[in-house]
Amino acid sequence: MGEDIGTEGRAGGRARRSPGVAGRTAEAVPTDDARGPEPGASPRAEPAAPVPLRGIDAAGGLAALRGLLDRPLTSYYLLLSCAGLLLLIGLTMVFSATSVKDYAEDGNASASVTKQAIFAMIGIGAFWVCQRLPASTYRSLGRPLLFTSIGLLLLLNLLLAYARLTDQDSGRIGPIEARLNWLFVGGIQLQPSELAKFAMVLWGAHLVARKGAALGWWRELATPLFPVVGLLFVLVGYNDTGTMLCLLALVVGLLWAAGVRMRVFGALAAAGLVGIGLLVAVASLGAGSGERGEDNYRFARLAMFFNPPDPETCKLGDCLQFYQGRLAIEHGGWFGVGLGKGSLKWDWLPEAHNDFIFAIIAEELGVIGCVVVLSLFAVIAYTGFRIARRVDDPFRRLAATAVTTWLVSQAVINIGGVVGLLPITGLPLPFISDGGSALVVTLAGIGMLASFARAEPDAARALHARPPARWVRLLWAPLPPLPGRRRRPATPPAGRGSVPRSRERRHDDQAAPRGVRQDRSRKGTASERRR
């Protein structure tokens, strides 16, 4: 009896709480304890109240992450942070991969990294300029950049053909010298194929955005997109198959964003396979790094990928680079041997500072360092496609997709060749490999993406709601245009023929004097009213 009274007292106490307490707790619901135990049932202990968890659980963490990603300028800050970290990692690894060799040759361990740092500063300037430009400027720059890159590629190939005919290592006309994939104008080194990527992004995005729904017709794709793309593939792929594959991925991403039908991609795939086969065959005639009468190095790379030989039989011959790259990855393990402590860069691994710099990262920083680099490229891919999804301008959407596809496909081709998942193509790793032209053009593409990120509707409204100081806008980037306030050309009025005779100004004596209201009553016949 006493137990029943105690139970009812506790239930009544919960039901008679003050409104202030009820606001912080759940509403009292009748329970078995409130009704009391059944007759003959043994008393049971009251269950303990659940203790609230302190901190953030998994659902709260996902909600917080979703809230951060929903902020207006998230794309812009993600892009800047990932590109800056990759650039910093690249300068560090270039110094680590070249310091020993530079010191042994010239006595200056920082020669290569100083040169790369100069190109990085030029690339940061290109980034600053590109993030300040509006979309209309990019549209107008596409055709001049395309013609310039085609002209430089033609000059490069003509000089290389002249060098082949005259049995020289490089072609030279006055101050211009051509060597494999590079043009040397005085003391300036250029790689025209890198400029061709950026030009293809701008010109292709403008062309596809202008054609719009007409891309469903083959005639619209055949003029002039496919001829120009085919010409670029021939000019670039004759010396550099890897860059040609990167251009192919760029064009596929551009057409995919435009919503082209799947049979177009099937035709592109068939044409691409035929073109790659021809480029592999012409390596026996001296294309790229090949020599007439020597083994076809492109075919040897493909054969080594599809049928890997025993490393013990070819580690000092054809598969030296492949074998040493695998050895560097194995030597690094999970945590690496330490930054700067790798040994494969001591002239054992060919192109350790450029094509195979990812192997140096794996040796010195281990699997953890490789995961960090891959994660940064994954975030850049996510950010680029996020920008393409959020902007409302068709040109910005297509250009953002093309730039993102270009950077991600180049990173995949390079890393896949190093770890053995793809054939070796000799393509540099964006942001990280040693190379001035590639770094400047890559940072220019990131600057264009940053301009598009600031032009997202939510980002533009946020920037206009709380605009930064004037000196910040002058030194960094101007305010983007607000969505929905773009000036559109006025539609011309429909043709209505000649002006009706009744609306002509009458200059005779029948014209009524100004200020006098005419009688508009319908008097007389119809012919008289028309007069």
Overall helicity = 55-70%
Q: What percent strand? A: under 5%
Total helices: the number is 21
Order of helices and strands: HHHHHHHEEEEHHHHHHHHHHHHHH
Shape: globular
Structural class: mainly alpha
Main sheet: strands, sense, barrel: 4 strands, antiparallel
Q: How widely separated are the two ends?
A: 114 Å
Strands of the largest sheet, in order across it? 1-2-3-4
Radius of gyration: 35 Å
Poorly predicted ranges: 1-43, 489-522
Task: Summarize the helices and strands and which ones pair or pack.
Layout: H1 2-15, H2 19-24, H3 32-35, H4 58-69, H5 74-106, H6 111-130, H7 135-165, E1 171-173, E2 176-179, E3 182-185, E4 188-190, H8 192-211, H9 218-222, H10 225-237, H11 241-258, H12 262-281, H13 297-306, H14 311-314, H15 320-332, H16 357-390, H17 394-419, H18 436-454, H19 457-465, H20 470-475, H21 526-530
Antiparallel strand pairs: 1-2, 2-3, 3-4
Helix pairs in contact: 5-6, 5-16, 5-18, 6-18, 7-8, 8-10, 8-11, 8-17, 8-18, 10-11, 11-12, 11-17, 15-16, 16-17, 17-18
